[in-house]
């Protein structure tokens, strides 16, 4: 097979070559150049492993504490190096590092799967059973079969137990489902046989090490600087925003991209099933995540528990990972109407469908509560072209009783697929009026402010200011000294 692409992945001090193999008329394959270790060397490593287990004392607290793994690796690594050098005094330092890395992966990690978790180009890693190769979802090539295969079902079960122990949970025949996260922040889900009829299964969703920022989304045409400027203005003055879209349309990524628009002195509380949001370091942020019950059914902390508790934490902004149930929606919309700024995601493919989804079961929010939402952004994934776009941005408008819903959508911007651009669809009927009432700005002043923000965003995109902390620093600087940022961007208007 031909090499379509080749690159390196680093695990500690060891570099591993990754090759995408394929060619005309062939399905691409993800090939990891695994270290080739001779049987005699494997026997030596097994001997060292037994020595480490005997000699290195590890407390129960260290085993169960995720933060102590780095210390444990260092402790095991140092002793492994001593044992290796005692047996082979003339061993080359590079060989020693490689063997110790392999040993640490087997003892404290997920073996060969560690090479996959280290590859930032992967989004998903799936172990279906020991009878099939591990599969991955590559950002550029989609689903690929790898050259890694599990030895047996016991090895997969061992990996599931390692993942579970790190979060204080067990996976057994009686409790065959596990939803947890790795030390890297990656989300892991495991299902045991016979619930998974092919064999034990593990699915790992990769946590973005270098998350998307608004600069990336402007550059790749997911959204325009003008639309971002309008969202920025709304968020600056504490408007409520809902992000809608289908599965894998980019709702959470888009929500994460918007967070730097929040002023740095506002207290943010986020509530998620699994930690996915990554905010700039300057923000005043308290992330909360749910906790599953233990095998006895005790100790659960639900999203509703966290949502109710968050209102006692004096937040200025509340972020909800995904709104799914009626009780969550009731608390969230009540928070909107009591003066909190709320940002959340919901499954719906258009603004009209968002309204229907909110007012009907299982969410079933009273229609009059929907007026608490100031902006609704709808994300869309074009599967044929492999692109994600802001499909619609608009607002909820009171409708006459004869429509039967009492609320109708007003689309301000929409995506035009034939030209692949986002165009203005109609004028705002609520947003600018509410901004004017909240801020005292006239409509011309609001338009001027939008142009300033658009100019700053376009300047950031042009100059490739894209790291989450760099984007956050520009936003922080804007709130401290808007004129300085305007001057940097080349904007001639003076900030009011």
Could you describe the 3D structure shown?
This protein is α/β, with parallel strands linked by helices. The chain has a domain of 276 residues: P-loop containing nucleotide triphosphate hydrolases (Rossmann fold). It is 36% helix and 24% strand. The protein contains 16 helices and 18 strands. The strands form two sheets. It has a nine-stranded mixed beta sheet. A hairpin with a 3-residue loop joins strand 5 and strand 6. The mean pLDDT is 89.
Tags for this model:
Rossmann fold; nine-stranded mixed sheet; alpha/beta; 496 residues; 18 strands; single chain
Describe the global form: globular
Low-confidence stretches: none
Helix content: 25-40%
Q: What's the mean pLDDT score?
A: 89
Structural class: alpha/beta
- The level 1 CATH classification of the domain at 214-489 is Alpha Beta
Q: How many individual β-strands?
A: 18
**Quick one: CATH superfamily of the domain at 214-489?**
P-loop containing nucleotide triphosphate hydrolases
The CATH topology label of the domain at 214-489 is Rossmann fold
Described by strand count, sense and barrel closure, the largest sheet is: 9 strands, mixed
Per DSSP, what share of the residues sits in E-state strands of 2 or more residues?
15-25%
Rg, Cα atoms, Å: 26 Å
Number of helices: 16
Give the end-to-end Cα distance, rounded to a whole number of Å.
62 Å
Order of strands, widest sheet: 1-2-3-6-5-4-9-8-7
Q: Any idea what the CATH architecture of the domain at 214-489 is?
A: 3-Layer(aba) Sandwich
